[in-house]
């Protein structure tokens, strides 16, 4: 099975290296960016299963990066966890208002990071699966017994539905 792809975005290279290590040891593939602009460029090239996004970064901060991701139809379903040293209630609310699915406080605790990323990558997998199954159902409703060149029964079997 393919490893979930997680983007770690932080302007602090030591923090990125640390989170990369935590995630890779726990079975994730990791891409990295050092500000919001780089993150958006990475996402344009390949959609990750989740993004771990620092708040305070040059060029484009984490809040605005999350807002941009959540405003685009092609990226709005990518789960985002905001990481911040500003762990007061107003900043937590700001993270949620920006579209983040969750938040983590610095300093990063390995087990909590891994648990939240695993949860969010599972959410991403479920969203992709639901979208695919809706497309299969639409194909069936139109009278087509295949989807993307495969028999629908085979797809449903692969998904464990029959």
How many helices in DSSP terms? Answer: 6
| Oligomeric state of the chains present here | single chain
**How is the largest sheet built, in terms of strand order?**
2-1-3-4-5
Within the CATH hierarchy, at the fold level, what is the topology?
Rossmann fold
Give the % helix: 40-55%
List unreliable stretches of 5+ residues. Answer: none
- Annotated CATH architecture: 3-Layer(aba) Sandwich
The secondary structure category is alpha/beta
Question: What's the number of structural domains?
Answer: 1
* CATH C-level category: Alpha Beta
The SSE string, one letter per element, is: EHEHEHEHEHEEH
Q: Mind telling me the CATH superfamily name?
A: Response regulator
Structural summary, described in words:
α2 runs parallel beside α3 (62-71). The protein is of the alpha/beta class and 162 residues long. 30% of the residues are buried. The mean pLDDT is 90. The protein is 50% helix and 17% strand. The protein has a single domain, classed as Rossmann fold (3-Layer(aba) Sandwich), CATH 3.40.50.2300.
